[in-house]
Amino acid sequence: MTQPSVIKQAVLTVKDLDRTVKFYEKVLGFKVIERTNEKASISADGETALLVLEHHNDATPRDPRTTGLYHIAFLLPHRSNLADIVNYFIQTRYPLQGASDHHVSEALYLADPEGNGIEIYIDREPDTWIWQEDQVYMTTVALDIENLLQEATETGWKGMPEKTVIGHIHLQVAELEKTREYYVDGLGFDLVLRYGGQALFISKNKYHHHIGLNTWNSKGAPALGKNTTGLKYFTIALPDEEEKQNVIHQLDKINASFSEKDGKIITKDPSGIEIVLEIEES
Predict the structure, then answer these.
(1) What EC number(s) does its UniProt record assign (predicted)?
(2) Measured between alpha carbons, how far is 231 from 116 in angstroms, rounded to an integer?
(3) What digits encode the pLDDT tens for the residues 134-145?
(4) Strands (E) located in 125-229
(5) Structural domain boundaries enclosing 35
(6) Residue 29 maps to which CATH number?
(7) Is 1 a member of any domain?
(8) With bands split at pLDDT 50, 70 and 90, how would you rate the model's confidence at 84?
(9) Residues 42, 25: Cα–Cα separation, whole Å
(10) What are the pLDDT digits (tens) for 49-72?
(11) Could you tell me which residues come within 8 angstroms of residue 101 by beta carbon, excluding any fewer than 6 positions away?
């Protein structure tokens, strides 16, 4: 089961393009649909680029205490897919950073060769999610690997399923109040969970979250440098021209800076993270 994707694409600056492409292709089983010496487009279905890797040989490694990417979360269509990739990681002894049950979802965590965080997850059925008024219940407990592996298939892991999407993106930000104003009052997301004073989770259409925002490692931190590895920008899909005009009006109302180019809105959040908003092609 996959939800319609709101986060369409992420663009990463990488120092070692060959090594990073090899990871996404050979370890995770994505398809490379375009490749030059300077750029590679990474896809699950062989047509749509979920990730674009841009090579900058003189880029400096990102300081993990700066603002920017916490992780990109790839949503698999079926629980059996998650079971198969767990089996695959066990067989190949690939190192993971964690495996968690969040009540709304089950997730694995790891990183690419340049330290960009990755989540691979499946959602539980939305009718099992618990909502307390407008707040969704999420938790973090150990993933029941034994139970999950009962869903594994005989064919096993054959690469990223075609219907894999970016289910959400999680960002490190410098503070939360201006950030909330920007994403909720400006971009029009709903605040669905305030995690103490350290994190916010926001979404469209009653999803558990399309964007996570935390200050765990980045409170008061500077923005990512221009010539630094890590997240360059990510793209949000807008349903139609009316929604695009609403976003323009709302960004203007909160005095957020933005520009328009080729029909797209280009803007930065209060932590300097660049976002491109474009109408989704039908």
Answers:
(1) 1.13.11.2
(2) 8
(3) 999 999 999 999
(4) 131-132, 135-136, 141-142, 165-172, 190-195, 199-203, 211-214
(5) 7-279
(6) 3.10.180.10
(7) no
(8) very high
(9) 8
(10) 999 999 998 899 999 899 999 999
(11) 107, 139, 140, 141, 142, 143, 144
